[in-house]
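Summary for the steering committee. One of the milestones for this cycle was to obtain a three-dimensional model of the protein with zinc ion bound, which we needed before selecting residues for the alanine scan. The sequence and ligand used are listed below.
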Amino acid sequence: MREFIHQLPKAELHLHIEGTFEPELMFEIGRRNGVKLRFKSVDEVRKAYAFTDLQSFLDIYYEGAQVLLKEQDFYDLTWAYLKKASEQNVCHTEIFFDPQTHTDRGVPFETVIKGIHGAMADAEAKLGITSKLILCFLRHLSAEAAMETLEQALPYKEWIIGVGLDSSEVGHPPKKFAAVFKRAEEEGFLIVAHAGEEGPPEYIWQALKTLNVRRIDHGVRSPEDPELVKYLVEHQIPLTVCPLSNIKLCVFDRIEDHNIKEMLDMGIKVTVNSDDPAYFGGYMDENFIAIQEGLHLSREDLYQLSKNAFEASFLTPDEKQKRIDELDTFMKAHS
Ligand code: HPA
Ligand code: ZN
């Protein structure tokens, strides 16, 4: 099964580039930029990755990002992730970035996006992995700050497929950002939002009805509301679920308690993703392996999860069909 999972053609739709920052690279970039971390070693950093909830993770995640200053830093970070993803047979990925984490420290928007975009273009040319970029607004900051960030993004519109919403969920409902998402949609961006990770089903409804999202990021609290489940199934709204993230942030106690299989069986279009793999103990293979072993998934379940991701992606209909044909060829060869 592990080899099957590794070989399975996969798409990743919920991945924060700042969450792929492995401690080794963090130290290397910190050293070359003359930025000191409060940790003395890679081991000490990894020991600090004991989280109790979303906020306890976010505090250290924003801290690590402080060493990123130059275009080359963002390039190196993105290249390292794309290389790793490609090695795990992820053939398409849609990457989140948090510009405010950097612009609020004085790093220009242009520096961030040029570094990330450069690595994405090189990875497509050299590794064959395709990717798209989604700008996330930090929801613990104001709606006005989000609007300013959107304005900064407009000159780079061709490099950004969509906008999303991340950071501290509870107390920052989607409707707080209604105006900025309306403007983003008018500018042609596709809309996604984190909702129902720690926040209630009501936040998922708001993301759907007020922000007009194409996908819900996380959404694992959906089964608490039967009407919402009915809506998600009827409209085939994808959920980008992140199993290891949910365990590390104590959304579920154990992988055996995770509801991804239950949601798959309900007919919800669920997908598997790694969220912040450097912090949560694994990339795509490790996430698939964890749920396969913990929830006893069959090869057909794994196939369906992968197919859902291609269907839920922002690829064109022709590109989606090509990936699904490749997935079907893979399945025929392995059954
Ligand atoms: N949730 C909210 N904000 C985040 C996450 C997440 O899973 N990862 C990085 N920022
Ligand atoms: Zn996330």
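Key point for the committee: The longest strand covers residues 130-138.
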